[in-house]
Design brief:
The chain has 1 helix and no strands. It is mainly α and about 140 residues long. It has a domain of about 80 residues.
């Protein structure tokens, strides 16, 4: 009976130890799972922040490019206006130059009022308003 009690006691001790080890392993596994979950959450947060920063950098780059192009356009437009002004100022018109008439009311014009003496196709534009480059 003593041997039976000793064997039972040893078996009970071994089962308690294995149960303790199983609980310990379960706690370790749970702790590891929580660490992995936390690391994954942090990684997602860092990725989200990086995307927001990249988006802001992209927006700033777009705004800078738009400002650069606007400044370039303003400069070129001013140059164009100055050139146009120079051209208009350089055209000399004498006082004895007659104004060009429309032909309306002229006896020898040969064109009735509101009519054109050339076909539409000779103007290089169609009735729909599109330019005809095949003339």
């Amino acid at each position: 009976m003593r041997m039976f009690n000793a064997a039972l006691d040893r078996s009970f001790r071994e089962s308690r130890i294995s149960h303790f080890r199983a609980k310990d392993a379960e706690r370790d596994l749970f702790r590891f799972w929580k660490e992995v979950e936390e690391q994954s959450r942090r990684q997602a947060e860092l990725h989200s922040r990086a995307l927001v920063r990249a988006e802001r950098r992209g927006k700033r780059a777009i705004v800078a490019e738009m400002k650069r192009r606007a400044a370039l356009f303003a400069t070129e437009f001013e140059t164009f206006k100055d050139a146009q002004k120079f051209l208009w100022e350089s055209i000399e018109v004498s006082e004895d130059t007659a104004e060009a008439g429309t032909g309306v009311g002229d006896e020898g014009a040969g064109v009735a009022e509101g009519e054109v003496d050339q076909p539409v196709s000779s103007f290089g534009i169609s009735m729909s308003g599109f330019l005809d480059f095949e003339l």
